[in-house]
């Protein structure tokens, strides 16, 4: 075993990597399992698997039985979903359960919870050697409605359309929930066989946070997750070196009252790079907080936006600006947004901006300590990005970033794509 920040890390005999946070901070125990695959043409098949796992296992063969077992575990919560992290596609299974110490007679909830999660993951309810046809058809319909319904969440739709246009031809352009047109060709037998290949070949990581010991977690994982694996599925690195040759501008009209403007930059910086922490600062100063340049100038000073913020994808190296504007303000909003980037590139950073950003970043990092799910997600991304800094080391490295480093990182930014979701002209 070895220590990674607050977590103790080890690998099981069948190649599952496990991280354990031995802490008395929480009254719950959280177990997160991630299966990792490339984000590729199998995205739709992967997106169908988590909801099918939640619908029933061989020991708990229906959604009702799954829910009843969760209640027996004193209100444990079982979650299952997919996630895109860089060009990795993750299947996640999560079980949150109470600390047995706070329950009369102290039932062995860690053991029972680990057994329940392993049962759901490894022994799904089957029919004729495949996922149950009725459940599959219902989940295909649910997924179809979800993917097609993205347009109803205009902010998320605009963000997604920016990514699809900005990263056209790259794996990152794929939606983590797949494509509706793939659904008719998926059947229960083929999907189950595919899932078996994922279990055997994909990297699998388990994270546990709570009042537990690494020794007891290791014994339980070795016992409950003892299945044959071959590690045969290769994982491709995320593509981060695409240089835009020209700025793409894409406009769509929809039945919206307020336009959604998204602006995408390439940073050429990821979590593993030396410039990562100056990039964190850059995002904070540009649009990460209410004191940031976008909020103060685009929204407050020029009254051009209902909201204006920025975020960055730390594994892909993208920085995205998000804003809601009136259609007639489009040209001016784009101009003022770009002026904020230019200001940072020119070193226009006040002491107030710097001190407020450090305070904001410090509070944000410290808040991760108090939320086991966020803490696990932080470590998971660190592991994917090839960095091993603890939260304390993150705070220390952020504290020594200089103004000059922030400016140098800003000067690397390359504007790639502008996407505008505009109100229909007929309105």
Keywords, please?
427 residues, alpha+beta, Cytochrome Bc1 Complex, Chain A, domain 1, 5-stranded mixed beta sheet
Descriptive notes:
The chain is an alpha+beta fold and 427 residues long. The protein has two domains: 2-224, 2-Layer Sandwich (Cytochrome Bc1 Complex, Chain A, domain 1); 248-423, Metalloenzyme, LuxS/M16 peptidase-like (Cytochrome Bc1 Complex, Chain A, domain 1, 2-Layer Sandwich), CATH 3.30.830. It has 14 helices and 14 strands. It has helices at residues 43-55, 63-72, 109-122, 133-148, 154-166, 188-201, 214-224, 276-288, 293-301, 330-345, 351-369, 372-385, 391-399, 403-410; strands spanning 2-4, 7-11, 17-22, 28-38, 77-85, 88-98, 126-127, 130-131, 204-210, 248-254, 259-266, 305-313, 318-325, 414-423. The strands form three sheets. A seven-stranded mixed β-sheet has the order 1-2-3-9-4-6-5, sandwiched between helices. A five-stranded mixed β-sheet has the order 10-14-11-13-12, sandwiched between helices. A hairpin with a 5-residue loop joins β2 (7-11) and β3. α10 (330-345) crosses α14 (403-410) and α11 (351-369) runs antiparallel to α13 (391-399). The chain is globular. The termini are far apart. 42% of the residues are buried.
């Amino acid at each position: 075993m070895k220590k990674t920040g607050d977590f103790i890390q080890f690998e099981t005999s069948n190649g599952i990597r496990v991280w354990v946070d031995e802490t008395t901070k929480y009254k719950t125990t959280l177990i997160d399992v991630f299966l990792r695959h490339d984000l590729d043409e199998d995205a739709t098949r992967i997106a169908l698997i988590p909801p099918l796992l939640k619908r029933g296992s061989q020991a708990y063969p229906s959604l009702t039985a799954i829910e009843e077992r969760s209640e027996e575990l004193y209100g444990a919560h079982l979650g299952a979903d997919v996630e895109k992290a860089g060009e990795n596609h993750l299947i996640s299974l999560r079980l949150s359960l109470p600390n047995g110490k706070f329950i009369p007679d102290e039932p062995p909830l860690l053991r029972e919870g680990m057994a329940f999660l392993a049962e759901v993951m490894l022994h799904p309810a089957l029919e004729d050697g495949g996922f149950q046809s009725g459940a599959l058809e219902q989940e295909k319909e649910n997924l179809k409605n979800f993917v097609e319904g993205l347009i109803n969440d205009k902010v998320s739709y605009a963000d997604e359309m920016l990514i699809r246009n900005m990263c056209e031809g790259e794996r990152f352009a794929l939606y983590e929930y797949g494509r509706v047109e793939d659904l008719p060709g998926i059947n229960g037998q083929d999907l189950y066989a595919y899932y078996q290949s994922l279990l055997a070949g994909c990297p699998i990581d388990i994270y546990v946070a709570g009042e537990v010991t690494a020794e007891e977690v290791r014994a339980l994982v070795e016992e409950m997750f003892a299945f044959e694996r071959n590690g045969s599925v290769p994982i491709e690195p995320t593509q981060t070196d695409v240089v835009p040759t020209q700025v793409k501008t894409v406009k769509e009209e929809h039945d919206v009252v307020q336009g959604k403007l998204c602006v995408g930059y390439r940073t050429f910086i990821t979590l593993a790079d030396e410039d990562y922490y100056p990039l964190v600062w850059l995002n904070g100063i540009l649009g990460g907080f209410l004191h940031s340049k976008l909020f103060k100038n685009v929204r407050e000073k020029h009254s051009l936006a209902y909201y204006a913020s920025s975020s960055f994808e730390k594994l892909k190296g993208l920085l995205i600006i998000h804003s809601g504007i009136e259609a007639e303000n489009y040209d001016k909003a784009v101009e003022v947004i770009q002026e904020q980037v230019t200001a940072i590139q020119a070193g226009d950073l006040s002491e107030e901006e710097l001190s407020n950003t450090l305070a904001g970043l410090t509070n944000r990092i410290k808040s991760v300590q108090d939320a086991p799910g966020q803490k696990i997600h932080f470590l998971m991304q660190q592991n994917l990005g090839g960095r091993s800094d603890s939260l304390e080391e993150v705070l220390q490295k952020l504290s020594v970033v200089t103004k000059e480093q922030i400016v140098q990182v800003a000067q690397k930014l390359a504007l790639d794509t502008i996407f505008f979701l505009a109100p229909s002209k007929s309105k």
